[in-house]
Design goal:
By secondary structure, the chain is mainly alpha-helical. It is built from 34 helices and ten strands. Keywords: Heme, Iron, Metal-binding.
């Protein structure tokens, strides 16, 4: 556990900090911001590797547009390269043509390509200006450095993928049935389970030894954040310290896995992958009022430990499985398919055929990256440039989703599909209620007929009143719970769309099928003419022969426990990926996942009860030089928490966290857990974006970790932090005694236990006491001594919450 004394000013500097207690936060944090920004800039001088997320953005948002609208005149294959400008290679686009460089990475305003797309200089493409959202993608791409992986060429043309060689790629081979390696006696004394045997062998071969076991306080804090996303209580820590039994930590793990908070923590990981949000984003950004039902389904099924294979199958094809007698279970199967519907859509797109194929593309991207770890969507407009995925493979998969109904209509502003959850109770209520509506409608019809025949003197106001009665009764009809869900549509095989243009089609259709390269290992089931193929796809994804899904899922589970994955690009296992750091361990974990009936909870126990997981994060100078990224797993990784557990922990220690489960909070000011807050794709909650909750319209493979000034400013100035720090202070002061000096010492110890799960060191104790004394002196204008004491303690608690130790896990 780190020393707070080197992360927060509590000594002599505190005197200056509290001299103007009401204004010190902003000034102090501006200095911190300057230092942080300077450190970040100073560190940014090494060789760059392409971020997989940036490559994915280029492949999904930029390259297809260039291919469709620009390559005809600006590529190596053009009959005439207009203006001397090629846009089919990274170096060419940066070199530019007769008018100079086409892009200035990091500077959209200075990039000729962007001004041309806006029709501000040249007018490109000449047939008409591209949509604003496409131009915004190009601006974002340039702003983020214009990442472009198109570097390998033969005579100006990209090298084709060697399919025979690709078949030998480690990720496409069958999963090996590795036995844990033999280890020596010393390693056997350290190892707790087979995971450790794989790690120990790798360390021995590199000449390193594992770090010592983490102390118990560190271990329970690590496990509690890992499994429920909250800090342990003081009582939980003390109970663990008092338990000397050999299975003490195993009991902690079991207790946490049984907590309903577990599903909220690990369900959130899954929601990142499947791009969950509560608004549509895109053009209209309509509210998705029933999206929360899918989120609650995820939380519940994770808590229930639904086997991961069933978890995946139900989200792709739950509506096609046998209908259970239990209506709640039947409703859950429909709700699960909301995964395919919750993505962003251009609802006001007037070319509805384009809207549908764009939705299909978004579904392919989410499913292929989440389950297969492949960027299949990159083959929409051409054969994949890096992986053995052809355009035919793409449209074979696209046919499955095209044969699936995701939209309810094709109106001017289209509506996504929603389906009712079955309920015999509501069905009976509706049946009993319907005669009232029928009677009112019959009366309205009679009145219109009588008026038309002039048999009764019926005015417009009588007619209008009866119409309102019908409308009111219709609205008050007992309603089924509606969920975003898919349904079967007309089975359709698609042709290849040349350059991804749905108006330019190849003459031959491609039968619905799975990606060819993977069917060499996992035989693809036939797709009947009368079905979409979703169920066959879902079952094929989780078949034991499929070389990717179990590897991908085992890799993700490992990543969410260790911060880094065994394959560093968790959603791209293609030819551009780095091989796993421990390939035998990854395959063993993938096999173990199947052997354990795809139980996520069993995998937690396996990983967390290993000596590898329980190591301290203590660094070894020699090992850090040779392995600075800890790829050998010599120690545990020190990790910063994501946005949600940071926010939830602040509320939790202040006693204000609302533990109500389910449904959705009214707004982001709620004290509900962060997973229940609304996620607006067009206006993300500021605290989330500050702590790296990124683009919510796309699959998120792993939360990035940045260091920016706004994070420090938030921790010192946010109303959430200020309120909860005051709550902590007031709660502590309830235990104060008349002997202020002894009382302060005791309360400082209680504050450290509550916020850091450990007692303070003596130096920290003394600095905290000096801080309180200085604060009391500089708050002398506050006449009420009790109020002055509360304010001083609130300042101390706020300072402790703002430390790295509060938001990092060792």
């Amino acid at each position: 556990m780190g020393d707070v004394s080197d992360r927060v000013c509590l000594g002599a500097d505190a005197t200056r900090a509290v001299r103007r207690l009401r204004g010190w936060q902003l000034r102090g944090m501006l200095v911190c911001a300057y230092l942080i920004a300077g450190a970040a800039l100073a560190a940014d001088d090494g060789p760059k590797t392409l971020n997989p997320a940036d490559v994915q953005f280029f492949e999904s948002k930029i390259r297809p547009v260039l291919v469709k609208h620009c390559y005809e005149c600006h590529s190596a294959n053009s009959k005439i390269v207009r203006g001397g400008l090629q846009l089919d290679h990274r170096d060419a686009i940066r070199k530019g043509g007769d008018s100079g460089p086409a892009v200035e990475p990091g500077s959209p305003d200075d990039s000729l390509l962007l001004s041309s797309l806006k029709h501000e200089s040249f007018e490109m493409p000449p047939k008409g200006r591209l949509p604003d959202d496409v131009i915004a993608d190009f601006a974002k791409w340039i702003e983020n450095g214009a990442v472009d992986p198109r570097t390998e060429t033969i005579h100006g043309k990209l090298k084709p993928v060697d399919w025979d060689a690709a078949a030998q790629h480690w990720a496409f081979k069958p999963i090996s049935n590795n036995a844990p390696p033999e280890i020596d006696d010393a390693e056997a004394d350290w190892a707790k389970n087979p995971i450790d045997q794989f790690v120990a062998k790798k360390l021995r071969l590199a000449g390193h030894a594992p770090a010592p076991r983490a102390e118990k306080r560190t271990l329970i804090r690590r496990a509690t954040f890992d499994l429920i996303g909250l800090p342990p209580t003081v009582d939980e820590v003390h109970a663990f310290l008092a338990d000397d039994s050999p299975d003490a930590f195993a009991k902690v793990v079991d207790r946490l896995l049984a907590s309903p908070r577990y599903g909220e923590r690990w369900g959130r990981h899954w929601l990142d992958l499947v791009r969950y949000a509560n608004t549509n984003g895109a053009d209209e950004n309509h509210s998705l009022p029933n999206a929360w039902r899918f989120r609650d389904w995820v939380v519940q099924k994770v808590n229930d430990d639904l086997p991961l294979n069933d978890f995946i199958v139900q989200q792709l094809a739950g509506d096609l499985l046998p209908v259970p007698n239990d209506e709640r279970a039947a409703g859950d199967l429909i709700t699960a398919t909301g995964m395919l519907v919750i993505g962003p859509k251009m609802l006001a797109e007037q070319d509805k055929d384009k809207m549908i194929i764009d939705i299909v593309d978004e579904q392919i991207d989410t499913v292929s990256r989440t389950m297969l770890g492949l960027t299949v969507a990159c083959a929409r407009c051409h054969d994949h440039k890096f992986d053995p995925i052809s355009a035919e493979d793409y449209y074979a998969l696209a046919g499955i989703f095209y044969s699936t109904q995701s939209m309810a209509n094709r109106d001017f502003v289209s509506k996504w599909l929603e389906r009712p959850r079955p309920s015999k109770e509501i069905e009976a209520q509706r049946l009993a209620y319907q005669p009232r509506i029928d009677e009112a409608k019959a009366e309205l019809k009679r009145m219109k007929k009588a008026r038309a025949k002039a048999t009764e003197p019926i005015s417009d106001a009588d007619l209008k009143k009866q119409e309102e009665v019908v409308e009111k009764l219709t609205k008050e009809m007992p309603a089924f719970d509606m969920v975003m869900a898919v349904d079967e549509d007309k089975p359709t095989d698609l042709p290849v769309h040349i350059r991804a243009n749905h108006l330019t089609l190849s003459p031959d259709v491609v039968p619905r099928a799975m990606p060819t390269i993977l069917t060499k290992t996992a035989a693809a089931p036939p797709i009947q003419n009368e079905s979409s193929g979703r169920l066959q796809l879902a079952r094929w994804l989780v078949s034991e022969e499929n070389p990717l899904t179990t590897r991908v899922m085992a890799n993700r589970i490992w990543m969410w426990h260790f911060g880094n994955a065994l394959v560093r690009s968790p959603s791209n296992f293609g030819l551009q990926s780095e091989p796993p750091t421990h390939p035998e361990l990854l395959d063993w974990l993938a096999k173990e996942l199947v052997r354990r009936n795809w139980s996520l909870k069993d995998m937690h126990r396996l990983i967390m009860l290993s000596a590898t997981y329980q190591m301290s994060s203590e660094a070894s100078p020699a090992a850090e030089v040779e392995d600075p990224e800890n790829r050998l797993l010599r120690r545990q990784n020190r990790r910063r928490l994501e946005a949600e557990p940071i926010r939830d922990s602040i509320l939790f220690v202040g006693g204000a966290l609302d533990m109500t489960m389910g449904d959705i909070a009214a707004n982001t000011n709620s004290n509900r857990r962060a997973i229940y807050l609304p996620i607006n794709r067009s206006a993300l909650y500021e605290m989330f974006s500050t702590f790296d909750y990124v683009e919510t319209s796309n699959h998120i493979e792993q939360r990035p970790t940045t260091t920016i000034p706004q994070q420090s400013l938030f921790m010192m100035n946010s109303p959430i932090v200020i309120r909860q720090a005051e709550n902590v202070a007031k709660e502590l002061l309830k235990n104060s005694s008349t002997d202020t000096a002894n009382s302060d010492r005791q309360l400082i110890g209680m504050a450290f236990e509550r916020l850091f799960s450990r007692p303070p060191k003596e130096e920290e104790q003394q600095r905290a006491q000096r801080f309180l004394a200085d604060a009391d002196q500089n708050l002398s204008s506050v006449e009420d001594s009790e109020e002055r004491r509360v304010q001083a303690w609130a300042a101390l608690c706020r300072t402790l919450i703002a430390t790295n130790e509060f938001i990092f896990v060792e």
